[in-house]
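Long-time lurker, first post. I've been practising inverse folding by hand and with some scripts of my own, and I keep getting stuck on stretches where the structure tokens seem ambiguous. Below is the full token string for one chain I'm working on. Before anyone asks, I'm not after the true native sequence, just a reasonable design that respects the backbone. If someone could post their per-position residues I'd love to compare against what I wrote down in my notebook.
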């Protein structure tokens, strides 16, 4: 049954149809070739001469190849190959052929498809009637006298008449074999000629890298803004619950801090989610991606831990530096405060924060007491320090965090100037 399925099964029939479509597409080029041959030979015996038709066929193929250089030919060929040739979709390229190599491959495929399709289509039109006539010789005397089979004496020989039905059947099987072989050739060449070129693979890799960078950037923004707010609110709410009956004034201050924290975080969250609703890049980088160092006062006032803040060098206005540097420094401070809330030691000891503007870099140093108990790692947690390192590296800086002399020290150094942009769009890098 397998040989029969290979010749007449669904896949074989679809490939045969694909070849017939190729033959139909070849016809306009073949007719133009026929006209050219007729003009060269005076038009005598044009369609009755096999040699003239072969020349017209040969002239049609270069014209078909020239058509294959159009960019939109490839998606049409890919759609037909996926539907009719049984080629796995992942092996074929998507989109128009943009590069010279892709267009040359498409032209090669288009020419091969039309050449094989023209041959198989011509055989499909001509061979079955001839095979049926040969198979009917023993049963219909009139067939032996037709011009089609040239009623000669040999056709009346008994052995010829006995073999004629088998000969006709063999012709039909040979046609099916030829169609199956041509379809297999196309199916095997499709991934090579219609598959992605090295340039296509590079472009796809760049798109995947850009998409991944955008996802990572959004994940960092959500982690730092929402994660910090939830940590602060959770700890402040717990502290308020423990002294609710003893110190109403403290509880009132805590609730105010929670209100300010959540209000600020809702604004940051709306800004980050706004990136998902935009088709293009935002115009205002600072507003689009989050606050900068100019908003540091509000963060420190309601972060949930006391902070001893020092500033060295640089302009009086923290927002005067390059927006991307200011923004990333703010996020690093925010994540450092979140870590101090979750894993710090004595809550009465303030977190030390130093922001120093050097000649070419911005240095952020944060220190908080180490906790007496090991920090409990949350399921799926542990992304904060990695996010800090990613932010620093994307700007061309560096960051490290480790215990030093009984305190946990976070140090980040960022370049003051990011070449070529007023703000980093990581997804475009």
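-- Answer (accepted) --
I ran through it position by position. Result:
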């Amino acid at each position: 049954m397998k040989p029969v399925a290979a010749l007449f099964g669904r896949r074989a029939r679809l490939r045969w149809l694909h070849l017939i479509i190729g033959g139909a597409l070849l016809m306009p080029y073949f007719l133009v070739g026929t006209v050219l041959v007729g003009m060269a030979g005076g038009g005598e015996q044009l369609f009755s001469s096999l040699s003239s038709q072969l020349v017209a066929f040969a002239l049609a193929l270069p014209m078909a190849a020239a058509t294959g250089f159009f960019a939109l030919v490839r998606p049409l060929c890919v759609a037909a190959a996926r539907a009719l040739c049984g080629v796995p979709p992942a092996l074929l390229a998507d989109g128009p052929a943009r590069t010279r190599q892709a267009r040359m491959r498409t032209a090669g495929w288009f020419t091969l498809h039309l050449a094989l399709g023209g041959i198989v289509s011509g055989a499909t039109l001509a061979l079955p009637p001839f095979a049926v006539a040969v198979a009917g010789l023993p049963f219909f005397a009139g067939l032996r006298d037709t011009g089609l089979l040239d009623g000669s004496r040999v056709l009346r020989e008994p052995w010829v008449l006995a073999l004629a039905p088998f000969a006709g059947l063999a012709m039909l099987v040979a046609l099916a074999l030829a169609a199956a072989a041509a379809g297999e050739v196309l199916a095997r060449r499709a991934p090579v000629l219609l598959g992605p070129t090295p340039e296509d693979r590079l472009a796809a890799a760049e798109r995947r890298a850009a998409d991944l960078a955008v996802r990572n950037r959004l994940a960092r923004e959500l982690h730092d803004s929402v994660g910090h707010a939830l940590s602060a609110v959770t700890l402040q709410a717990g502290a308020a619950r423990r002294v609710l009956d003893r110190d109403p004034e403290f509880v009132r201050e805590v609730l105010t801090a929670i209100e300010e924290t959540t209000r600020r975080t809702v604004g940051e969250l709306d800004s980050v989610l706004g990136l998902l609703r935009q088709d293009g890049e935002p115009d205002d980088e600072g507003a689009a991606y989050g606050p900068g160092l100019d908003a540091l006062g509000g963060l420190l006032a309601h972060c949930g831990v006391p902070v001893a803040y020092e500033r060295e060098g640089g302009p009086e206005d923290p927002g005067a530096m390059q927006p991307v540097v200011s923004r990333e420094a703010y996020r690093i401070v925010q994540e450092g405060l979140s870590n101090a809330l979750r894993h710090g030691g004595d809550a009465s000891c303030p977190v030390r924060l130093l922001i120093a503007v050097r000649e070419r870099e911005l240095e952020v140093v944060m220190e908080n007491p180490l906790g007496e108990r090991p920090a409990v790692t949350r399921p799926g947690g542990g992304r904060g320090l990695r996010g800090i390192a990613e932010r620093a590296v994307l700007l061309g800086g560096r960051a490290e965090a480790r215990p030093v002399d009984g305190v946990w020290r976070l140090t980040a150094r960022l370049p003051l100037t990011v070449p070529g942009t007023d703000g980093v769009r990581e997804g475009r890098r």
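A couple of notes from the structure itself: DSSP finds twelve helices and five strands in the chain. The domain at 203-428 is CATH 3.30.565.10 (Heat Shock Protein 90). Happy to go over any region you disagree with.
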